[in-house]
Amino acid sequence: MTAHKSFAELGVCEQIIAALAQIEITEPFPIQELAIPIALAGDDLIGQARTGTGKTLAFGIGLLQRIQVVSDSGYVSGSPQGLVMCPTRELALQVSNDLSAASKVREARVLTVYGGVGYEPQLDSLAEGVDVVVGTPGRLLDLVQRKNLDLSQIKVLVLDEADEMLDLGFLPDVEALIALTPRSRQTMLFSATMPTPIVSLARTHLNQPVNVRAETGDAQLTVPDTAQFVYQAHNLDKVELVGKILQATNRGRTMIFTRTKRSAQQLSDELVGRGFKAATIHGDLSQPVRERQLKRFRDGRVDVLVATDVAARGIDIDDVTHVINYECPDNELAYVHRIGRTGRAGAKGVAVTFVDWVDIIRWRLIAAALRLDVVEPIETYSTSPHLFTDLDIPEAVKGWLSEPVAPESVPRASARSGSRADSSSKRQPRTHTKRVRRRLRNHEEVKNDLPQTD
Fold first, then answer.
1. Which of 191, 213, 235 is where one domain is finished?
2. Res 255: pLDDT
3. 374 partner at 20 to 30 Å CA-CA among 15, 164, 170, 179?
């Protein structure tokens, strides 16, 4: 068995090693062990590894070591020498944070740029001078066109999540930005998934690239330390299922992915109403609000984050023990990136996927593409015995921490006065709503026994 090399043996400088030690990173992951020597040599690179196995530092260490910083003798450039393009704002922030941590001793100036926020702070930082820019293609191109961002001094270009970056939606902006960088640059592409057509497209931007893969060609793209459960669930029972899963033994931070923005908001509101500490991020929220929600999740003020796929890529949060796919993902790539939020860096994780009856064929295709053992989802209800044994859920738990309140019985603050407001305040509770909910939870027949009126 081959012994793993240390960062020093890979050629990493002492300043970066010291910075990594401060965040308790002392041994390289397999993708880092393979990629760092190639990156330090200045060769172009295509890297592929599972989500959560250290791709950011695999390209980040080489980038940070190959550029000049202010403390280096002979430093003359105030223009960026490193450029990292990311498909989402959240991934850009995550990459920027990792690079800043790795360069804390070396003191490289790292700037994150993305849309949805004001230009002024980004313009001020560019005017003062930066060494590395991490950003989304749209805002990067805006800054170039405003003549605030100069890419003529770029030494290292990185496309993170390259399959998404080079997809048709991003390609025009990405190619426009690449054309503004020197031909002598080093280019690296990294992603958890890289289909053959995307690799062919990526090669047009690289010069004799070295292909690096941290697993064998037939390895699963999903992380082995993540236990995967797939349940065929009824839509009316899903919230109850989630409520019980959130009370599993040793459940830590949990991420729940939904297909639509509306579904994410509704589920988050429902969980809060059931007593859980939940927050949501989706495309209808402004960037500052999304950042605040993520910070609440990182700080532990909430331990459930409901999100659309906007958060599926690049969010690296410690101690995410459970991931729940509230609906079946669209394809195997989305599935890999979603469940990659747990089981990171060698930790154990649990991934639960709900599959509706209409999505059975879609799930079979995902399972076949990823060579998963679970091809046929098990029909599962919130009272099914195997749910409790699979996920280590105490048998006595309900689907809430506090009794859920029907929307009709929640008092509303109103400034209106008069007979309508008075009559509303005297309105009797609609007890049949609770009755229907109880029968749905117990899989009983729901009868038309609403109170009769004259």
1. 213
2. 96
3. 164
